[in-house]
Here is the input.
Amino acid sequence: MSNNALVRVKDLVKYYGEVKALDGVSFEVYSGEIYGLLGPNGAGKTTTLKIIAGMLKPTQGHVEVMGISPIHNPTEVKRIIGYVPEEISLYESLSIIEFLEFIASVRKLSPSVWTYVFTLMRSFDILKYSRTPIGALSYGTKQKVAIIAALMHKPKILILDEPLRGLDAKSAKILKELMNLHIQSGGAIILSTHIMDLAEHLCTRVGIIHKGKIIAEGSISDLKRLADAPQGTLEEIFLELIREREEVAHIIETIKRGLSE
Ligand SMILES: Nc1ncnc2c1ncn2[C@@H]1O[C@H](COP(=O)(O)OP(=O)(O)OP(=O)(O)O)[C@@H](O)[C@H]1O
Ligand SMILES: [Mg+2]
Here is the structure.
C-alpha cells in the first residue's frame, strides 16, 4: 500500500455466518477524493463502510484510517471520522438541539461549534424544527440531523452510506456542495450509492462492487474505457461490467464441469 492514502482497505473478507458478504475488498482513498462505492443491493457496500467506521469487525483483512486501525482501535477512528450510517438511529425523544448538544458534549466540542451547526441547520432549512422531538420528524429531516451530527466536529474523513436518501432536490444540492467544499479543503469522502447520476457527477473515483468484490475501479473516464463504451453512461458501463463478469464466471463453471466429467 502506498503511504499517503487517508483510508486504506486491504483484502477485506466478511462472513455473516455462512454468508460471504465481502470477498477480498481492497481500495485506497486520498485527500481531495470523493470515492463512490457503487453496486447492486447486497453487494457489500454497507458492510465495507461499517468496517471502515469501526462499527463492525471483518473476518479477515486490514484497514487504516489516517494510520489508525478501526479493527483494533474503533474508538479512536470514530473520534476522527464523520459517519452517516445506512440506518440512522437517533435519540427519538430528544429535540434536534438536545441531540446535537449531546453529540457536542460526547465529542467535547467548544461552544464555538454552534455557529457552524446553526449555519448547517439554516442551509438544510431545519431551524424551525430545533425544538421538535426527533421521533416526530420526517425521514429526510432525520437524515439531515444525522448529516449535521457527522459534520459538526469537522472531521477530515466522511463515511456516508447512501447520503442522499430521503433528501429533497434542494437539500441534495446543498449536501453535494458541502461535499465539494469538504474535499477542496483536503478532506476525503467515501460514500455508497445506487444513484448512477450522483456517482457520475460527484465522485472523483468509483469502485464498482459486486458480490463482495470490487470488479472495476477508476475515474468515470477510466471506467468508460474499461467497458469499451466511450459514450456510455455510468449505468451502461456498470451493467456491462457486471454482465462480463457473470459471463466469465459462467464460462469457468462450464470448463470446470467439463473437466470433472
Ligand atoms: N447482519 C447481517 N446478518 C447476515 N447477513 C447480512 C447482515 N448484514 C448484511 N448481510 C448480508 O451481507 C451481504 C452484503 O450486505 P450489505 O448490507 O453490505 O450490502 P449493500 O451493498 O449495502 O446493499 P444495499 O444496496 O441493499 O444497501 C448481503 O448478502 C446481506 O444479506
Ligand atoms: Mg447498504
